[in-house]
Amino acid sequence: MSTHTIVSLPDQSTARIPKDNYITRENGLLSWLLTSDHKRIAILYLISITFFFFIGGALAGLIRLELLTPQADLMASDTYNKVFTMHGVIMIFFFLVPSVPATLGNFFIPMMIGAKDLALPKVNLLSWYLYMAGGLLALYTMTVGGVDTGWTFTTPLSTHYVNTNVLTTGLAVFIAGFSSILTGLNFIVTIHKMRAPGLTWFRLPLFIWSNYAASILMVLGTPVLAIAIVLIALERTLGIGVFDPTKGGDPLLFQHLFWFYSHPAVYIMILPGMGVISEVISNFSRKRVFGYTAVAFSSVAIAVFGFFVWAHHMFIMGISNYAVLVFSLLSMLVAVPSAIKIFNWSLTLYKGSITFETPMLYAFGFMGLFTIGGMTGVFLGSSGTDIHLTETYFIVAHFHFVMVGGMLMAFLAGIHFWWPKMTGRMYPEKISQLAAVVTFIGFNLTFFPQFILGMLGMPRRYAAYPPEFQILNVFSTAGATILGVGYLLPVLYLVWSLRYGAIAGDNPWQATGLEWQTQSPPLTENFAVIPIMDHEAYDYEWLEKQQKEKGVTSVG
Amino acid sequence: MSEHNEHAHHIVGPGVYVAILFALLIGTGLTVWASFLELGLWNPVIALAIATTKAVLVVLFFMHVKYSTKLTKLAIFSGIFMFLVLISMTLADYISRAWGSW
Amino acid sequence: MLDRSANTAHSAHEGHPPYLRHHFNSTEQQADAAGFAMWLFLLTEVMFFGGLFTAYLIYRNWYYPAFVAGSHQLDVRWGTLNTLVLICSSFTMAMGVWCAETRRRKGLVLSLTLTFILGLGFLGIKTVEYREKIEKHHVPGFHYSLKSFLDPQSDPEIYAEYHDKPLVPDMARHTELYFSLYFLMTGMHALHMIIGIGILGFMILRAKAGAYTAGHVTFVENFGLYWHFVDIIWIYLFALLYLISRHQ
Question: Is C216 on the interface with A (CB under 8 A)?
């Protein structure tokens, strides 16, 4: 690992955290719980999603423990079904969907566009309360028997064949959905209406473009999930018959409505992460993102095309062959914009001045693992191969590669990249690099065997499996243990850094974004004077000129 | 970049509203009258066409979209587009199934 | 509005209206953002109802005779009256927005009150229609009765108008699906009406106090958008539920 670094910290003997910042401006619990400051709301979200992440992670641990042996011996099959269902529900709705948008997006979108807050600050706070209400309801559901339908609530199982807490979990997801809608709505309005003077669309950081695209998906897709849940609730309580074949209904209608949201949902999850990667790769190559316009448009293209492919989750469920053909073709299309991004990031690295600080390590991990995950998605989008691979561990491996190897790594990249800005403190570099490597190793050991298991035919969502699959499952569980360590370490050292980390100063990464041109942590109003944008995004020459003029490279 | 509030420039007056009201009332009468006629396949087509015309009048004039920014119009268009994608692509599955009561 | 000039944080910001939130640069930007946000919210409502419209279209294609028979149970006259009521309420609401924009306080209060009354009228008519359905046991899940469809002549008024043939029992059972969607769609619409009427009540009180006729019309404008949207949903519900299935 190169010892060269671009980190530039102020003189630690004289540096101080600025006295007036968004954390110190007001005191007391209520000032946090009733805040309208987007930065405080971002921190509230950060704490809560971390909490839910570890609950989801504990459930994952239980899954992997059970799968150490071929028999369903650690827990009954019914319990196992509940465990993987809650793992999915919590990880998707209460961790992945809000992860980057609600934390880093909330914190930095206004700052990156030179605004004082989001367009609707109180709605932002409401979003967090809705999120917490949904999350706590989901946790409560776990204590009263959970739900065992899988996070996909497939009908008619969820409407007619189980007596677990489908309604409460559905309600929790419904509430969390509104949180997501309001966040996306807020972002779209803010990005359109509150950019600083001179900040045209094509001068925006790509993080903004990605969150904007994800917000479109949140606003247009989530309501369809809402109505699908309402229909399930009415089917279960009143027996209205919309999904009941004995009354003439079609269970597939639920799946159409559910996946109409849930496919765009995966892009809601990944797009903000891709935005983070754009920022990180540019900064740690000291180079403007190659093909800025292509990356910007590809974000929107992913959002738009993402709406046309949902039935590739339903190839074996009974849709018509014609529909299979159309959706398979369209699914091939949607891979293209994602691939464009990977190419552009690679070309950004080419001839860049690369350094290997922790955010960059996570970004490299993202590029490799997301590529693998994305390519395996093509096998699944192709209907012929999907018939063999669907509902096996191949799918499980595919989505964990893109979501954990991709999205979670991007989230960690972003947290580490912007940690000094949010807290005024640097995290400890050596141990964080170690954690990144441990995570990468653990991840591959956990999930790569699952591709093989899937191809060999091990079905997903089963507590028991044929004994010949055990060795790969044992590898996977071993990897999960390592992965757990890799995720625990950041929690420990990031909390440690709040007290003992080096003072970061305004711009320890020598980054070009607007958020880096002000103090760390920022003022409540973000900027003392609204900046005027007169240069392009990722303009490292502009930054150099700035630093020469100021005579210092950072302010303590 | 802030955009000027269109209402600083254009306030829609009662005259327009009264005209649209009458158009909507007439449209309602028309569509009810048409529903009494036996027109086979054309009944739903005419009913939905009249409904859409009424909706467009409400959107353009009562909701001031005629005097709105391009952004507002684009947003509305994309919402309607997505709604149509939901209906048409789902229906495409149902219509193309070999079994079922078609 | 509170007099905030005593607040030291404000003393540097004199010259802007008290309703300008500090993260905005101007009242135009604030009103613009609020209006755009309202439109985005309406788009979510379009997608929300969209799921129901999808279900309706699919099952109407599958069970056409049942949907025709079900739709004959609806009274076109009540439906037409409701449509006229809502259209007039959209007119009064639009007039209300104009009154707010031109600072006509009394006109605004009158317009909002008329809109409120018309809204209640709509719900009243809906109650009459729903009661009819309940009496005839056409509510899915609550002793749903197939009698009107197996034996149309047991319903003399409707039989006189449509002369429906009896449905085979299998198809007759699917009328329950029609009524599920009927209650779902009109019920969801009515829920939105109730919320709207509630907000209207609040607005009438605030309008009386002059809150919306001092230059800050955003709330009235955006509520108007919501109200017109609910009207548009009804325009389509009226066509789909009452009008398009009247003939075999």
Answer: no
A167 token code pair: 């309604």
Could you tell me the residue range of the domain that residue C91 belongs to?
Answer: 49-243
Are A236 and A157 in contact, with CB atoms under 8 Å apart?
no
Indicate the class that CATH gives domain A29-550.
Answer: mainly alpha
Collapse the DSSP code of A526 into the 3-class scheme (helix H, G, I; strand E, B; otherwise coil) and give the result. strand
Q: Which partners does chain A have (≥3 C-beta pairs < 8 Å)?
A: B, C
pLDDT in tens, chain A (556 residues): 456 889 999 999 998 999 999 999 999 999 999 999 999 999 999 999 999 999 999 999 999 999 999 999 999 999 999 999 999 999 999 999 999 999 999 999 999 999 999 999 999 999 999 999 999 999 999 999 999 999 999 999 999 999 899 999 999 999 999 999 999 999 999 999 999 999 999 999 999 999 999 999 999 999 999 999 999 999 999 888 899 998 889 999 999 999 999 999 999 999 999 999 999 999 999 999 999 999 999 999 999 999 999 999 999 999 999 999 999 999 999 999 999 999 999 999 999 999 999 999 999 999 999 999 999 999 999 999 999 999 999 999 999 999 999 999 999 999 999 999 999 999 999 999 999 999 999 999 999 999 999 999 999 999 999 999 999 999 999 999 999 999 999 999 999 999 999 999 999 999 999 999 999 999 999 998 888 888 899 999 888 888 888 765 444 3
Given a contact cutoff of 8 angstroms between Cβ atoms, the answer to whether B61 and C224 are in contact is no
Q: C residues 106-145 near B, CB within 8 Å?
A: none
Parse chain A into domains and list their residue ranges. 29-550
Question: Is the N-terminal amide bond of A205 cis, ω within 30° of 0?
Answer: no
Interchain contact B30–C (C-beta under 8 A): no
Contact call for residues A98 and A183 (beta carbons, < 8 A): yes
ipTM: 0.93
Containing C122, the helix (H) or strand (E) segment is helix C105-135
Burial of B5 (0-12, 13-18, 19+ CB in 10 A): buried
Reference C38, options B82, A204, B79, B20; nearest CA is B79
Q: Quick check: A223 and C50 CB within 8 A?
A: yes
Q: How many domains does chain C have?
A: 1
> How far is Cα B95 from Cα A323, in angstroms, rounded to an integer?
10
Please compute Rg for chain A using Cα positions: 23
Domain boundaries defined on chain B = 12-66, 68-102
The DSSP bridge partners found for residue A459 are A392
Query: Which B positions 61-100 lie with beta carbon below 8 A of chain A?
Result: 71, 78-79, 82, 85-86, 89-90, 92-94, 96-98
Q: Given CB atoms, is B101 within the 8 Å cutoff of chain C?
A: yes
Residue C111: inside a domain: yes
Closest residue by Cα to residue A286 from A503, A1, A4: A4
Domain at C96, CATH number = 1.20.120.80
Rounded CA Rg of chain C: 23
Subunits in contact with chain B (3 or more CB pairs closer than 8 Å): A, C
* B4–A contact, CB cutoff 8 A: no
